[in-house]
Amino acid sequence: MAQNDKKLVEAITPMAQDFGQWYTDVVTKADLIGYTSVKGCMIYRPYGYAIWENIQNILDTRFKETGHENVYMPMFIPETLLNKEKEHVEGFAPEVAWVTHGGSEPLPERLCVRPTSETLFCEHYANIIRSWRDLPKLYNQWCSVVRWEKTTRPFLRNREFLWQEGHTMHATAEEAEAETIRMLNIYADFHEKDLAIPVIHGRKTDSDKFAGAVATYCIEAMMHDGKSLQAGTSHYFGDGFARAFGIQYSDRENKLVYPHQTSWGVSTRMIGGIIMTHGDDSGLVLPPAVAPIQVVILPVAQHKPGVLEAASVLRDTLAKSFRVKLDDSDNTAGWKFAEYEMKGVPVRVELGPRDIEAGKCVIVTRHDRAKTEVSLENVTEAVADALKAVRDGLYERALANRNARTHDCTSIDEINSALEQHGDGFIRAMWCGDPACEDAVKEKTGVGSRCIPFDQEHISDTCVCCGKPAKHMVLWGKAY
Amino acid sequence: MAQNDKKLVEAITPMAQDFGQWYTDVVTKADLIGYTSVKGCMIYRPYGYAIWENIQNILDTRFKETGHENVYMPMFIPETLLNKEKEHVEGFAPEVAWVTHGGSEPLPERLCVRPTSETLFCEHYANIIRSWRDLPKLYNQWCSVVRWEKTTRPFLRNREFLWQEGHTMHATAEEAEAETIRMLNIYADFHEKDLAIPVIHGRKTDSDKFAGAVATYCIEAMMHDGKSLQAGTSHYFGDGFARAFGIQYSDRENKLVYPHQTSWGVSTRMIGGIIMTHGDDSGLVLPPAVAPIQVVILPVAQHKPGVLEAASVLRDTLAKSFRVKLDDSDNTAGWKFAEYEMKGVPVRVELGPRDIEAGKCVIVTRHDRAKTEVSLENVTEAVADALKAVRDGLYERALANRNARTHDCTSIDEINSALEQHGDGFIRAMWCGDPACEDAVKEKTGVGSRCIPFDQEHISDTCVCCGKPAKHMVLWGKAY
């Protein structure tokens, strides 16, 4: 058990000391990822991948309930196809991986590995959309994409990452805009209810839109260190791609018109968001909805007669309702406690000879280490309550952190002093709409515009930067 | 409805006239795939992808039940990593796609897009396997892989295709060999029970082994035209890769030794196998276990009062147990019949005013068009029986085709005359074990060795080619 002992001894770096190093320690010591010889391309190890599978299951069900169908497009995009929509190619060409040879032969045209698949979907839609009867098309794809980033970080910025990308086509602009918001709301709801991560809905400013989009909507979440994570985006394209790709349909009056388009996506980046929102100095803390192990049963004094048998019975009972693991290995109790705290298992159940005699067990919730003695007769209800308490506790804690680190400011000086006094966080401040002011705020304070929140408040009459009349309240912050 | 009418009018090419064209017609007209501008890279359309999702669900459950965990490895393999195992690189290097540039910069080392991931798993295993306590490692991955084939065909031979690849490491050769056979048996069982495709288990001859394997096991299925499809493979590697990659563990005596390895995979090729085993001149016929729509309800005279209401009630009843679609569109009855036959929906339920009055409906099974009138009260049981009848009927029909097209031969002349008389099929004939004879049989008759079946029979004493003493009965055939 050389490895195990080592793990127990080598604690992770405390968050307060070095948040970045804490993050790296957690992703490796909780066995989420492995590094490879290709920079920025990581291994999703079983425990990390199981979180992704749980995320996929929940979201895929919601996508299907709202009428979406899954497809799979090729991973390669010919250069001429990528070039068809001008803004799109300018946004993505600098960071794509190029395939130039098949076997020993050079290809007639080089192919990029998809950084996103708008162009592929549009090529297909041009072939299959003919009539108003063919609309809407509500397609989604689960796949990996590649963006050749210079700086990389597990889950947050990888050269290859896993995601889903929805691509839809609609008869009217209104329908497409409604779809864009509908999917954003599904993302927001998933974050709040299942991941216990409070998010702010909003629209990106024009300088921060997706390459080729008319409007980009996003959800922004605050991490434990006060920085912002863009946790999901939803784009409205108008008919820009449709025109570039010649996608037309006959409407009910038999007139040829262009359809309106959306795309929307979330990625394994969400796992980074879970870690940085809920984790603590003992490691990961997982929201129950996506935890690979929701309940771990640790037998106490397991060598004593009857303990393992009772633990097995308990495991079988709980396994009917939850994802359960019974650890009856010969590792020490101390090692087991540390291991499942590191892995962020939401609920731990301890069961020893005295508990068995009294018909009880002890339930410990991971986020606050609260201990409750419960009767074995009601253990399923008690564990369900404990899991709910973890979800609610995590959400409240994250919301409290966000509230404590959100500051309303009316001048550049106020922004700087808020950041100096309280550290990184969200700044809410008014903006005139001029991209020059957006750039100036970033230059003078270090915080950039994260979004124009849907829930607007009137902080002041004038732009925080130029003093001209304000148009919007903007959420500003440092971004991952 | 110009498209729909066209579909109804343009029947598919009959199998007997041109089997290859029939296949192409089915994959496109049943909306399984779409072509793209990259040769050999196809679109899995919703109906085709849904079959794959059903396959994934069943197999993934079986893999997890047998203790396997899912992971995700990078899609890129550095050239030096691919080169580490000599036979392996010789097998795959001629058909890989090479990434040479990231953005505008040439890469320091070119990367191939994974054709299979043994090398990536081995690099990872070298990092995480230390002790006998770390074994076995039972990993699986669902992903797409790329092989730059010259000739391509939807599902059967694509440059990019979807698959799963299991990669396991074991303490002993015996354990690894048992895993190899266990996974082959899971594939065989899935084919026979769920896909209704009878298969022959066997071992590949040395000339047909996977690049780098000690032994390759396979299941071979006969297609409707008498050709053979390799439907799944399972490889035993010994410790060859472990030595090449320096993977060692301390055994219970604290001695450093090499672990033993397997890999096994099935791909979207199985969908090609389903089409060519069960399809007919009206289109696809899907085995119920993987059919996206198991039951289609077609209302008769749906404009009459009460018909659509009764059909909805029936849909809601059946949806509790099956994947059901109610087609209440204004397409003609003729169009609907043709459409769902083309799409291979196993069971059709017809419900009209007279049926409703009599408390009945009509159930039609796709493979034999058998009609049964059943009481609406027992409709769930009746549909369950009908689905079972489809699965059993498909299996029996496929088995009868295979039996009719399998011939035992004792000489090259007998092989040639069997093929001439009966067309393509399986030949069972003895072999001395010499690769020269294997090549000679193929050259003289056109059929190659498919496998050495586990169920051996004694056809004759001597090799069908050279007349020397025979070692094995070999299954010979033409392969897809």
- Backbone shape of chain A: globular
Q: Tell me the domain tally of chain A.
A: 3
In the CATH hierarchy, the third-tier topology of the largest domain in chain A is known as: BirA Bifunctional Protein, domain 2
Greatest contact pair?
A-B, 57 and 57 residues
Number of E-state strands of chain A: 23
Q: How much is the average pLDDT of chain A?
A: 96
Strand order of the largest sheet of chain A: 3-7-8-14-11-10-9-22-23-21-20
CATH top level of the largest domain in chain A? Alpha Beta
Radius of gyration of chain A over all CA atoms, rounded: 25 Å
The poorly predicted ranges of chain A are 1-6
- Count of helical segments of chain A? 15
Subunit arrangement of the protein: homodimer
Computed structural class of chain A? alpha+beta
β-strand amount of chain A: 25-35%
Overall helicity of chain A: 25-40%
CATH superfamily of the largest domain in chain A: Bira Bifunctional Protein, Domain 2
In this structure, how is the largest beta sheet of chain A organized? 11 strands, mixed
N-end to C-end Cα span of chain A:
37 Å
CATH architecture of the largest domain in chain A: 2-Layer Sandwich
